[in-house]
Specification:
This protein is an alpha+beta fold. The chain has helices spanning 6-13, 61-74, 79-82, 87-93, 102-123, and strands at residues 26-31, 38-46, 49-58. A 3-stranded antiparallel β-sheet has the order 1-2-3. A hairpin with a 6-residue loop joins β1 (26-31) and β2. The model has no long low-confidence stretch (mean pLDDT 97). Bound molecules: FE2/S2 (inorganic) cluster. FE2/S2 (inorganic) cluster is lined by residues 32, 35, 37, 59-60, 62-63, 104, 107.
Length: 127
């Protein structure tokens, strides 16, 4: 069996929503101290819905694929759903990841939650 799923390879080769959002109102940046990879998520939230989302990931292929999938999973979604995003759900949506790469999907969960937290701090809203 191939180490990486077709879907993961597709999101790595053709990442969705890569880039930044100039007027983002929630930005989250997280890193993994062990591998040194960094992931940044930009959210544009309107009426408690993620209108737009982009990411910048300086990291491995699994981290890039995880960011790409995570942005697809939260785009257009209400915050009540977005805050429930888990790394497990991201990995499953990518048709699985090798166990030693699961920490890459954790970065995606953490970056999204960190961006939500930033949005809460900027707006004074409880997210
Ligand atoms: Fe560090 Fe993938 S190896 S995020």
């Amino acid at each position: 069996m191939a180490l990486y799923s077709e879907k993961l390879m597709d999101h790595f080769r053709n990442p969705r929503n890569m880039g930044s959002i100039e007027d983002a109102n929630g930005i989250g940046e997280v890193g993994n101290a062990k591998c040194g990879d960094i992931m940044k998520i930009y959210l544009k939230i309107e009426n408690d819905v993620v209108k737009d989302v982009k990411f910048e990931t300086f990291g491995c292929g699994s981290a890039i694929a995880s960011s790409s999938m995570a942005t697809e999973m939260i785009k257009g979604k209400p915050l009540s759903e977005v805050k429930k995003l888990t790394n497990k759900a991201v990995a499953e949506a990518l048709d699985g990841m090798p166990p030693h790469k699961m920490h890459c999907s954790v970065l995606a969960e953490e970056a999204v939650l960190s961006a939500l937290k930033d949005y809460g701090e900027r707006t004074g809203k409880t997210v």
